[in-house]
Amino acid sequence: MIKELLILGFWSWSLIIAVPFLILMWLTNYDDYSDFSGSPIPAIFILGILVLITAFTNVNPFLYIWNNFGFIAIVALVYVFIGIGYMFVKWHFYTDKKLEFYNHISESIRQEYNNYIKETKVHNEKVNLFEENNDTRYSLYKEKTIIPFKDWVLKEYNLPPTAKNNKARLYIWIMYWPPSFVWSIIDHPLRKLFNNIYNMVGETLNKMSIKKFSQLEDFK
């Protein structure tokens, strides 16, 4: 198989490997920013790449796997064990990001929960009123129980994150840990660097803005 690989040359194989890898980096980390749960998509993408390599080159990955099944099985087992270890590391960073997200919007979440309590109390008052007056509409309504704050946040925002509600993410991190790992070591330091720069210059920028607007009568 090595001879067949050398036929296309270094740069050709670099493109064949790099482009799919970059796409996989996006697919396996897209769930960091949304509720993407299409975990079969990366697998289908990889299968498609293998089919294209088989069809348009002298390399047959499927035949190589078949002829070296024992070796491939050992490699796959080691790969999965590494992925499980990576999953714990990735979960640490993921929960850090969710904690940061919660701290950023905690006031609005608390206000939303207070509105939920008010709406629930109004609903229950109507139900009780219908019952006292023997109103037939009472049969259409049921009294609601107010959910504790932490249970409500878990239900509405999946916070704090739980393994049960993140099965697709955990699966992706285990099965596609190389592109996810590369993205993580690039993304997390860059985001931290940007936040540090923002914290350093933000106050200075605010002072510049306030100084200019303070010249106006409305802002004195």
Provide a quick synopsis of the model:
The chain is mainly α.
Description:
- α2 packs antiparallel against α3 (40-56).
- Helices cover 77% and strands 0% of the residues.
- The chain has 8 helices and no strands.
- Among the domains are: 1-29 and 37-67; 87-177, no CATH class.
- It is mostly helical.
Low-pLDDT stretches are: 1-8, 32-37
**Count of runs of 4 or more consecutive helical residues:** 8
Which strand-content bin applies to the residues?
under 5%
Total E-strand runs: 0
Taken from the alpha-carbon principal axes, the silhouette is flat
Layout of strands and helices, then pairs:
Blueprint lengths: L1 H7 L1 H20 L10 H17 L4 H7 L1 H64 L16 H9 L9 H9 L1 H37 L7
Main traits of this protein?
mainly alpha; 0% strand
